[in-house]
Amino acid sequence: MLAGCTPWPPEFAARYRAAGYWTGETMDAFLRDRARRFAGRTAVVGGAERWTYADLDARADRAAAGLARLGVAPGDRVVVQLPNVPEVFEVVFGLFRLGALPVYALPAHRRAEVAHLCAATEAAALVVADVHAGFDHRDLAERVRAETGGPARVVVVGDAGGRAGFTPLAEVRRLGEGQEPPAPAADPADVAFLQLSGGTTGLPKLIPRTHDDYLYSVRASAEICGLTPDTVYLSALPVVHNFPMSSPGFLGVFHAGGTVVLAPDPSPATCLALIEAHRVTNAAVVPPVALLWLDAVAGGAHADRDLSCLEVLQVGGAKFGAEAARRVPAVLGCRLQQVFGMAEGLVNYTRADDPAETVFTTQGRPISPDDEIRVVGPDGAEVPEGRPGELLTRGPYTIRGYYNAPEHNARAFTPDGFYRTGDLVRRTPTGHLVVEGRAKDQINRGGEKVAPEEVENHLLAHPGVHDAAVVAVPDPYLGERACAYIVPRGAAPGRGELLAFLRERGLAAYKIPDRVEFVAAFPATGVGKTSRRDLRAAVRAAHARPAPAPDGAGG
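Structure for 2,3-dihydroxybenzoate-AMP ligase, as requested:
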């Protein structure tokens, strides 16, 4: 087990193996097996590229050998920040084949997040695109290296621009051509990769996922979702996000021998055209994207699109309201599947045989018979069925601790290993969960998680800010937006000045507050702490109507 990670207790590991959840398959063996079984079938479609399973397997070989010659070794951590391009699979499976650990960064992350990932994992390399959506990731990589002293190697998908220490992926392939890739003996119980948590503090935590636990969730998800070799899955969300990676995501599709179609963006214009062109059967989106698609089709803008191939639309990442949920079959002509889960583990699905009202009004039930669920009140005691409480869980694919975070783990996990999710839910008699909100202060902006303390820390660096508090304001489109309350130091700085300051500090666009309010002081609790409850009440009362996102902000 990777140092700094918490293993499952031996008795639990033995139980999960005996139940057949953990089969001893590694991520590398996963691809080898599917490439053998589905060699000539199309695995990936992205832009002008179309790769078979055999193609992907061969590319992983070359990437592994080339990265090894570049100096990446088994056990090294490598931060991967790539958009939805086929090369993301080539790189990631190359790293698995080499025995290195991908560390996933989202395309929207900027210097603050990428620098944190590189430093926290002591990354040996960083893999980026050249330019994506108008943003030059090579400049970001250069600034991260200048400020942190690492990582030593940067691999660029596209043009490396002749920068020192930057190697184009095409050169990595050349280095690996005709070379035998390393063949380290991977332990399926060890960590396969690290993901970034949504985080409720200024330093987001890293989530270690093992080969055994993650591939169990992939296999079970593919079965629940009924995937087959005929499945054509549209990845409209960033493909390295947990939801489109494994719920069932591209890994579930690969498990079944189906085809993954990569969308460069989630817009209706892009995705509805791809659904029609590639006869997509399954797609997965967050609620704001689902609403955009519904409005685009219902409004007649895409009335000429043939979407009859679409069988299932999955909606997850944030709660999908019942009224919007009911529109999916009526407008898109497909079945809705609600998904509720977390990168730390637990995933819930509505099933194909659930009554329609259950699909519209709940967020599903757990994958596994061994997913243990507790719904507890503030005193830690379980609440009666049907009453809301905080969701606690443990099971064969829910982590037992974050990477290198012993103090946080002591708060986030119970002594007997239950993960405190921070979600407020109620459980129905059928075992389905209905999400009611969150016990945590984390803001869920259209499925993107914003940690208030992180944004506050950046705001406090501005010379004109005495104090700052960031809270959620309800929004009918995104679910929640962020509102920053500022106690100024002297004359209040301008709103535009503050937002520009946050962008300059390298904060991701979706974390930029949607509202900025200046106040003389904050409401306080009895011990002098800022009362977020009172701030939330104030923002709800003062801003009943949603405001447009500021320039440059967005999910």
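The two ends are 35 Å apart (CA to CA).
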